[in-house]
Write a structure and sequence with these properties.
about 100 residues; about 0% strand
């Protein structure tokens, strides 16, 4: 499936980070505490809602990439010959087994 798996997993990792960052950006007590520290000189905690929106759009982008890449993976999997789809040499389904018994 070449680059499909790595792109899908990369987008999933980015989504995981973005969705956890979405929650952290809206913790009011934590943001209020951080405003009183020296970090307020380096990070604009007063515009945290705008940052929350940027992270949400980024998460939406990576979600779309993840879904599209899963579509490509499904296409690649569906167009492979059946002998490459299973790790077993022979598969006997129940209806075939009943035919063999007769």
């Amino acid at each position: 499936m070449s680059y499909g798996i790595s792109t899908t997993r990369g987008a999933a990792a980015a989504m995981s980070f973005c969705f956890s960052l979405l929650l952290v950006t809206m913790l009011r007590n934590t943001i209020t505490f951080l405003r009183g520290t020296f970090l307020n000189l380096y990070a604009p905690f007063d515009s945290i809602v705008s940052f929350h929106k940027v992270v949400a759009w980024t998460a939406l982008f990576f979600t779309a990439v993840h879904v599209v890449e899963y579509g490509f993976n499904f296409y690649h999997l569906a167009t492979q010959p059946t002998k490459y789809l299973c790790i077993f040499d022979t598969i006997v389904f129940r209806y075939e087994y009943e035919k063999l018994k007769q």
